[in-house]
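#struct-help
A.M.: can someone run this one for me? Single chain, 222 residues.
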Amino acid sequence: MNHRSPLVAALLLAVSLPALQACFPVVATGVAVGVLAVTDRRTVGAQTEDEAIEWKASGRISDRFKDSVHVNVTSYNRKILLTGEAPSEQVKAEIGEVVGKVDNVVTVWNELQVGPVSSLSARGTDSYTTSKIKARFVDSGQFSANHVKVVTEGGIAYLLGIVNEREAKAAIQVTRTTSGVRKVVNVLEVVSDAETRRIDAALASQQKPTPPAEAPVENRGR
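D.P.: on it. Structure tokens below:
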């Protein structure tokens, strides 16, 4: 297997994801969820709350605005990023207010663009761009790709995650130089080197397998 394998695998995944998502709202297994939980710098509680926030916010937007808008809701550490399109500044602001009232939401980054709803082909292009960015994260070897979440909308790449300054600079540089990216928006949560070391050490301890119990030794004597 050559050194481009991560890139190829990521690109193939990007092609297949839209089809999978059209059939199922969530595609996950217990194993996959467990792996994500121990490689994500958020606490398990924060990850669970983020999932609940996304479902609640998306539901409220859909109930109120129906098909007149296209909104992606991404919650990371209880901070919401809104991307997509709204027909007017008023609707954009209303969506931000609706989402801001969801339980446990700390901050709302309202990055909705005012304009017509994007086409499926445009969204597919954005998914492809996201996959290229993630693959280049892996190829760069400068930080763990699992620590930076990428959302691409209209060629604009948004970066979320808990990182130190060195990792933030590397992630921004890799993203900025990826083909298809028109602009990079940095919404990373930058913490100290000591804090990322503490978090990573805690994650590493969670991944250590529990040693199997030793079988009892029967002493029959002679």
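A.M.: thanks! The chain is about 50% helix and 20% strand.
D.P.: also worth noting: The beta strands are 70-76, 79-86, 107-110, 113-114, 148-153, 156-163, 183-186, 189-190.
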